[in-house]
Design brief:
Layout: E1 2-7, H1 11-22, E2 27-30, H2 54-67, E3 71-73, E4 77-83, E5 86-91, E6 96-104, H3 111-115, E7 120-122, E8 132-134, E9 148-150, H4 161-180
Helix pairs in contact: 1-2, 1-4
Bound molecules: flavin-adenine dinucleotide.
Length: 189
């Protein structure tokens, strides 16, 4: 059984994976390559980066996560079942994976959230009404399921990449601290 399975490798899920992998938690990301970043020609409001295409930002986050030890598979998660000590996830491609903790960062794709019985409503920060959030979930991404977190826009944050990244990292830091039993902080010298 892996430590962490992240469904959705966009900004939030990919950012979470950088941290959980760095913390030496075995981390698998499943992603279907439909991040909103891939529709974004240029991003000029990600602090510290003057300008970047959405695709380049996504690829860089993915490369960082893999460089710290995350596994990354282009597979679509279709089913989640709670099991003893964690969760079992099946994919459309026939994969079956188990992990102690799950991070759901699927943004526009709500089927797994609905399957788990979450109540979904419009994310009030996004005027189009296209983006949804999980009722009762806030910035820490905690849900009523043990060790199952929501990351990214479904946690009811504004649709800005830097906020999705920061929220994904907050979820990861809390999860690392919980699974290892030690407060986690990453400061390079
Ligand atoms: C046209 C456009 C322009 C934008 N411009 C900007 C901008 O200038 N600046 C800015 O900060 N933000 C911008 N954004 C917003 C930004 O793209 C989002 O805020 C950000 O992508 C949200 O991150 P996320 O991780 O929540 O979701 P996403 O990045 O959308 O990631 C969700 C991921 O989940 C995966 N997924 C979903 N379901 C499954 C499943 N069942 N199994 C496996 N994987 C799954 C998808 O493939 C996807 O990769 C723009 C968005 C659009 C559409």
């Amino acid at each position: 059984m892996r430590d962490v399975l992240i469904i959705g490798g966009g900004v939030a899920g990919g950012s979470a994976a950088i941290y959980t992998a760095y913390a030496k938690l075995s981390t698998l990301v499943l992603d279907t390559e439909s991040s909103q970043l891939l529709q974004t020609q240029r991003i000029r409001n990600y602090p510290g980066i003057r300008e970047i295409t959405g695709e380049e930002l996504k690829r860089t986050i993915q490369e960082q996560a893999i460089s710290f030890g995350a596994e990354w598979k282009e597979e679509k998660a279709t089913e989640i079942n709670p099991i003893e000590g964690g969760y079992a996830v099946k994919t459309e491609q026939g994969g079956e994976y188990r992990a102690k903790a799950l991070i759901l960062a699927t943004n526009l794709h709500l089927d797994l959230l609905e399957q788990l019985g979450f109540t979904i409503q419009v994310n009030p920060y996004v005027p189009s009404g296209k983006v949804k959030e999980v009722v009762g979930v806030s910035f820490d991404g905690k849900t009523s399921y043990e060790n199952l977190f929501i990351a990214g826009l479904n946690a009811g944050v504004p649709s800005q990449s830097v906020i999705a990244a920061g929220q994904g990292v907050k979820v990861a830091v809390d999860l690392i601290s919980k699974l290892t039993g030690k407060k986690f902080m990453w400061h390079d010298k």
